[in-house]
Amino acid sequence: MIEAKAFVDLARITPQPFKDSVEFACMPLGDGCAISLPSAPAIGLNRILALNDINELDAALGWMKTKTGRRHVQISESSASDEMRGWILDKGLIENGAWAKLTRSAPVAPLSTEGPVRARLAGIDDAPTFGKLMCAGFGFPAELEPLWSCLVGKSGWACFIAELEGTPVGTGALFIENGCAWLGAGATLPEYRNRGAQKALINARLNEGLAQGVSLFAVETSEPQEGQPNISFGNLTKAGFKLSYIRKNYLLPN
């Protein structure tokens, strides 16, 4: 739910002229939402999430069918009822990988931030840099930089920039509401990966959440596969996150 709230808030604070220019839209529904940004290559911005009621899923799917792009429905594998499994088959949804949802409680004391890469809280003047790093790190088109820049300095959000010897190399964001926090926007420039940027960004966000009274943190990454490295999953589990459930991705047919 905190993940869905973060995307609803992202859509709320994004300036309407920019949303219109890139066809960015979000429909809050129940405890979840449907979100569409056709020019974004990632599932995260073209999906239905945090919905378990069939009627709500029908409404979200009807809305999503009016959009373009690679649209998905995400459903928790363990909590899917027989009715929902039948609904998936009836709608012709195509399984397309899965995400692991991880959670952890707040650390009892601030975590170490020592290391060659340091993560610092981004200020308003850093907003353009934050947007550029996000798009470069995730392989998004440059036209989407304002989407991420608008997060910096907004209420409920804490944005971080990772630096190596003074050079900005990565980003991370934290959305906080009612004692819960979602970690997102974790991206590192390809040429600076495997140098500790994500560890620094994870610890910085956990420390920020701790300072703001967060009791539960949530994050997601691709499901680990046997015999295949999953650096993101490894970084998160080393930081104390534990697997909560697997959420499958289902692609809408054309």
Tell me the helix content. Answer: 25-40%
- How are the strands of the largest sheet arranged? 1-2-3-4-11-5-10-9-8-7-6
The tally of domains stands at: 2
Low-confidence stretches: none
Shape: globular
Q: Determine and state the CATH class of the largest domain.
A: Alpha Beta
Rg to the nearest angstrom?
Answer: 18 Å
CATH architecture of the largest domain: 3-Layer(aba) Sandwich
* Helix-strand string: HHEEEHEHEEHHEEEHEHE
Q: Count all strands and give the number.
A: 11
Distance between the termini: 28 Å
Biggest sheet architecture: 11 strands, mixed
Could you tell me the strand content as a percent range? 25-35%
What structural class is derived from the secondary structure elements? alpha+beta
Can you count the helices? 8
Describe the structure.
- The protein is an alpha+beta fold and 254 residues long.
- Helix content is 31%, strand content 32%.
- It has two domains: 2-98, no CATH class; 105-246, 3-Layer(aba) Sandwich (Aminopeptidase).
- The protein has helices at residues 2-13, 16-22, 54-64, 82-90, 127-138, 145-149, 197-211, 231-238; strands at residues 25-29, 32-36, 46-49, 72-76, 94-105, 117-121, 157-164, 167-177, 180-188, 216-222, 242-251.
- Strands 1-2-3-4-11-5-10-9-8-7-6 form an eleven-stranded mixed beta sheet, with helices on both faces.
Outline:
The chain is of the alpha+beta class. The protein folds into two domains: 97 residues, no CATH class; 142 residues, Gcn5-related N-acetyltransferase (GNAT) (Aminopeptidase, 3-Layer(aba) Sandwich), CATH 3.40.630.30. The chain is built from eight helices and eleven strands.
